[in-house]
Amino acid sequence: MPERHRAAYERLAPRFVLDVPRDPAVGSTGVLPGHRLDVEAVFGRRAPLVVEVGSGSGDAVLAGAAATPERDHLAFEVWRPGIAQALARLPEPPPANLRFVEADAAQALGHLLGPGSVTELWTYFPDPWPKTRHHKRRLVTPAFADTVARVLRPGGLWRLATDWPDYAEHIRAVLGAHDRFVLVSTERAPLRPVTRFERKGVLAGRPIVDLAYERRADRV
Hints:
Blueprint: H1 3-16, H2 39-43, E1 49-53, H3 59-67, E2 72-76, H4 80-88, E3 98-101, H5 105-112, E4 118-124, H6 142-151, E5 152-162, H7 165-176, E6 181-185, H8 196-203, E7 209-215
Parallel strand pairs: 1-2, 1-4, 2-3, 4-5
Antiparallel strand pairs: 5-7, 6-7
């Protein structure tokens, strides 16, 4: 971690990185089952909540927080150097509507956030795990889709982007088979910036695929 990023983390993490109880059975990237965030207390208000899963160095969540101050933004990231880099890039004064959780969202999301508490969830350029034997490690699975369906409000959006065509087809297959999601857009997400992952994909000749799924209302 560069010294500038380390210094930013030490200075700003107490304010912007949430201290959550850890599950010793999972390790440092897991949270204690049953622990629920008081989102209104975290942000000091009641506002629509946008969650990013895998924020990396913070390109999307920083842009989103700046462009939509009326929304709160919560980013999950397991890679501390990425969070540190995002903190080092915060403007002055830093945004009040941004927080990070250093945790694996696949394990932590369903514990920390209540049913229907999220307005949008972003998953931009998740690790594609391109080798067939590694596909089971991909984030988008039926089980994770169930978790997202629980935390998204009816009518909420799950926005995804990838530069790997077979992962795009995998996402379409998983979410197309899920009874709580319907594909509503393949246009570029309005606030999604161009990241280094997208640039690498374009340079490699891979198409960029954006997908937005709406969370269906529960059947009565």
